[in-house]
Amino acid sequence: xxxxxxxxxxxxxxxxxxxxxxxxGEVTGAHEIPLSLALLSCRRQHENVTVxxxxxxxxxxxxxxxxxxxxxxxxxxxxxxxxxxxxxxLPGRFASHGWHETRSLQLSEA
Length: 110
What we know:
With 110 residues, the protein is an alpha/beta fold. The chain has one domain (5-109): 2-Layer Sandwich (Transcription Regulator spoIIAA). Helix content is 31%, strand content 35%. Helix 1 (32-45) runs parallel beside helix 2 (61-72).
């Protein structure tokens, strides 16, 4: 499975200094499969995975749900860390859906 993906809206590439992936562009519900496959590839090799969203300027709710589902599927003590700029308002979006209580999910502002 590849950690790389590209289309007209989004690009996925592996992180170079830690286990995980970096996304660029607009992440929509149409990206659920490539996003899930890239995360699965990372999770097979590492307990903790980082998703760097600092290059993302739009993140749909369904794409966010895909990330939350991936975090919830990690066996303990695994953790999915989402690194994002404040403009994506991940803390507010997570709190409004109750996702902030997901133990295997961490937010990190860049």
